[in-house]
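TASK: fixed-backbone design
INPUT:
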């Protein structure tokens, strides 16, 4: 007769071993030692025939119960270890949290919004027009006669036929005047295109804001008042403007306007090329020929118009020395605004 196996002792021993198993390898060892075909409990069950008949049933039942109990404990342990492993991979609570990057408005959008806000306060409303224009709106109606050398002032991207990419926002003047009767006081921000070599100071695409006012008795003094008021609000009270005579086909008289250099206070520096002044816009009294093109009576209606480069204003306000930075989408630049 064989020795009677001590099932309780074996079960306790197996349970303790399972408790120590910390990985799959240990679990595999446990399984083959205790639950496999050649495991301890299988051997006991196979050895039942060598026992005394009165013990066979008791030991057999106990061995089967132990086997079921250990199998359940094994399954539970295996599940717990797998869960721990998943948690360790996906949720390491010691890691710093991931920040979600927040978007923001492009610096040119911010500057445009500020310009619009300032002119809105002076009674201007916003209008826009198409970026693909016809020769008529971009040139002819603005008093650029065909083959006139003034057209060469603005290198143009021609699309096809009569169409071109607008070289300035001034065509919006014509489009608004055609639909409205004076008084009209409009601000028109938007993209313009010129076929220019790209460098630190100029780009083939840029943003311009056009402003114009047409009514009875609008004077050059009104133009100066509006521009000085704008400069003080946009750049600060210390900003001074200088008006120089100039020429544009669609204004007469015309002026180019400089602002005192904000960096050196007018003493001269690299930004202002040691002149103490920086050009910021072109302006003038709307030419009677423009009014005639839209059936306004130049004897009764007068007006002024101005055009400012938004990049130029942003560069001065924030001391940016290269226009290309606006269009490179480098977050290190954009995130500063
Ligand atoms: Zn300067």
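OUTPUT:
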């Amino acid at each position: 007769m064989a020795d009677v196996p001590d099932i309780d002792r074996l079960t306790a021993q197996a349970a303790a071993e399972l408790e120590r198993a910390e990985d799959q390898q240990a679990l595999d060892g446990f399984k083959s030692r205790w639950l496999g075909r050649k495991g301890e409990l299988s051997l006991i069950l196979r050895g039942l025939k060598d026992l005394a008949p009165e013990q066979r049933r008791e030991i057999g039942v106990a061995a089967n119960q132990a086997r079921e109990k250990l199998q359940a404990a094994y399954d539970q342990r295996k599940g717990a270890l797998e869960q721990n492993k998943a948690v360790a991979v996906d949720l390491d609570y010691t890691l710093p949290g991931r920040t979600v990057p927040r978007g923001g408005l492009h610096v040119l959008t911010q500057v445009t919004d500020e310009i619009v806000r300032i002119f809105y306060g002076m009674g201007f409303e916003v209008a826009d027009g198409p970026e693909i224009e016809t020769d008529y709106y971009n040139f002819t109606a603005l008093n650029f006669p065909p083959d006139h050398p003034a057209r060469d002032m603005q290198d143009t991207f021609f699309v096809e036929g009569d169409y071109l990419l607008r070289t300035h926002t001034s065509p919006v003047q014509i489009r608004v005047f055609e639909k409205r009767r004076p008084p009209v006081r409009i601000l028109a921000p938007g993209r313009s295109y010129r076929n220019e070599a790209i460098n630190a100071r100029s780009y083939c695409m840029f943003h311009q804001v056009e402003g114009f006012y047409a009514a009875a008795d609008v004077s050059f003094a009104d133009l100066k008042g509006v521009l000085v008021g704008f400069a003080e609000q946009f750049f600060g009270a210390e900003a001074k403007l200088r008006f120089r005579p100039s020429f544009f086909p669609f204004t007469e008289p015309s002026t180019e306007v400089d602002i005192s250099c904000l960096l050196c206070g007018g003493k001269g520096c690299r930004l202002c090329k040691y002149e103490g002044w920086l050009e910021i816009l072109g302006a003038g009294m709307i030419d009677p020929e423009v009014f005639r093109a839209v059936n306004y009576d130049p004897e009764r209606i007068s007006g002024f118009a101005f055009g400012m480069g938004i990049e130029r204003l942003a560069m001065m306000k924030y001391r940016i020395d290269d226009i290309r930075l606006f269009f490179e989408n480098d977050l290190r630049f954009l995130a500063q605004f």
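COMMENT: The pocket of zinc ion is lined by residues 261, 263-264, 268-269, 271-272, 276 (CB under 6 Å).
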